[in-house]
């Protein structure tokens, strides 16, 4: 049974599309909010038996090293819980910044948009 996210997470929409969570990041994500989002996603994967997570960052202008680490940790935790993670909508400037910071984001598959991310999750085996 799906439970609503706590009120303090309301700024980051997390939608369930079948057995996939869609997380849409918009604007700046403060450190505490990023950590709470990580906990919320992990909880939802576990309690709702999700098999995939799509994190849409098309609304994010900048990814710093902290947010990059949080995204990688979400993917790692999801993988341990048997869910796959796809990062969608990365802007070219964000990709360049991640390379300059030396962040490789292990465990994250990328897609140009949410539709392609959903296709990747549907195509890939477990």
UniProtKB/TrEMBL annotation:
Transmembrane annotation, as ranges: none
Gene3D superfamilies documented for this protein: STAS domain
A Pfam family that the UniProt record links to this protein: STAS
Domain STAS: 10-121
Alphabetical list of CDD domains matching this protein: STAS_RsbR_RsbS_like
Protein origin, superkingdom: Bacteria
Protein name, UniProt field: STAS domain-containing protein
Organism this protein belongs to: Streptomyces achromogenes
């Amino acid at each position: 049974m799906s439970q609503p996210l706590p009120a303090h997470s309301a700024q980051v929409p997390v939608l369930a599309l079948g057995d996939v969570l869609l997380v849409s990041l918009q604007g700046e994500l403060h450190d505490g909010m990023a950590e709470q989002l990580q906990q919320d996603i992990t909880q939802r994967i576990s309690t709702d038996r999700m098999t995939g997570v799509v994190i849409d960052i098309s609304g994010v202008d900048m990814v710093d090293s902290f947010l990059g680490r949080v995204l990688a940790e979400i993917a790692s935790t999801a993988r341990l819980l048997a869910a796959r993670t796809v990062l969608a909508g990365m802007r070219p400037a964000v990709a360049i910044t991640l390379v300059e910071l030396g962040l490789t984001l292990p465990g994250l598959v990328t897609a140009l948009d949410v539709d392609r991310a959903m296709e990747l999750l549907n195509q890939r085996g477990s």
